[in-house]
Structure formats: structure tokens, C-alpha cells
Amino acid sequence: LARVSDNTIHGSSFTTATTAGAASQSYIIANNLSIQRQHNPTYIVQIKTGSNITNVRYWLGLMSGYPSNSDNAPGSSIAIRFSTVAGDTNWKYITRNGTTQTVTDSGLAVQADTVYTFKIVVNESVPNVTFTINGANDSIVTATLPAASTNMGLYQYIFNTTAGTAKSFTMSRYYCEFTGEPLEAYKREIA
Question: Which end of the chain has fewer beta carbons closer than 10 Å to its terminal beta carbon, N or C?
């Protein structure tokens, strides 16, 4: 993936934006995938936050359904969230088993106009999930993981939580590979 040391996305990218209206959303998704925890998925996405990160909610990761304009992840999820409504100042690591959600603080403050590379690695043999941001801020989560056979897709969402100014993010690429049945890899680079 592109370097983050100079806060620039190198190569092709795509910017998606909400409208100025409350609860408006914008997203980039690949939801027709059957990614399951038992397939040991590795998910990587690189984004650059928009210039305005007030009244905003970001959702990035593996989810069993579309995220809503809520601080609770949809269905079963292994994801990363930033929500000013929830009072987040740092990126949050989220796991949800369909009923109960665990929120783990990454310790990394969210900044406007900043490039972040997020990595989620599932280790089914334990089971646990390792979250990483920009190659650091590691956290291993074992609580409230989705069931091993729950189907999930790739979701990258932004919500404008209050009327006023449109919100945006730029994404250069996302990647997910997984093993098991079926043995597949999915890679998407915005061209």
C-alpha cells in the first residue's frame, strides 16, 4: 500500500462525499462476498480523512449488513469506527457477535486531512482479531466476535450526522484475502 509517512495518497484514489443534509451517507462497498471468520480474513484499507471531521461517523471493515447512522455496528461485525456522536476522539476497534458489541480504544486520535492505513487480521485458531493503524496501535480483541460461519462483506462508510457541511473521505485501495472454503482472494484498487 501507499506510504503514509508524507500524508499523501500515492497512486489512484477515489473521493466519496455525503450531502450537507443530516443523516446523509456515502460509501464504497463490496457486500456480495461470503467472508467468514473461519476463513482467517485479512482486510486492509487506506483512506484520507476529509477536511471536516465534526458531526461525522466513519465505519470501515467486515460487516454482515449495511451500517446505519448509529454507533452500533450492524449485525455481526469486525470494524473500525470514528463517531463524534459517541464522543470518539480516537479510532475505535469494534467487534459484534450479532447481539453484543465490544468497543476498544485504538489510542490514536483522528485528525482531518490525514492518511490512515487500517489492517484487520482474524486468527480463527485462537480465535481473535488483531487491529492495526499505520503499522502501530495494535490491539488484540477476543470478545464478542462474529460466529465462525457468519457471512460478511467489505464496507467503507461515512455519515454526516448533523445538517450543515458535506463530509468526505478519499480511499486509495482496499484489500481482503481469506482462506478456507472457498479459497479465494479479493483485491480492489481504485483505477
Answer: C
**Structural contact between residues 58 and 46, judged by C-beta atoms closer than 8 angstroms:** no
- CA pair distance 44, 188, nearest whole angstrom: 11
Is the distance from CB of 41 to CB of 176 less than 8 angstroms? yes
- Percent of the chain exceeding pLDDT 70 equals 88
Q: How confident is the model over 58-108, as pLDDT tens digits?
A: 999 999 998 888 999 999 999 999 999 999 999 999 999 999 999 999 999
Assigned C-alpha cell, 51 = 477536511
Q: Compute the average pLDDT of residues 160-172.
A: 90
Hey, what amino acid is at 112?
A: A
d(CA 47, CA 95): 21
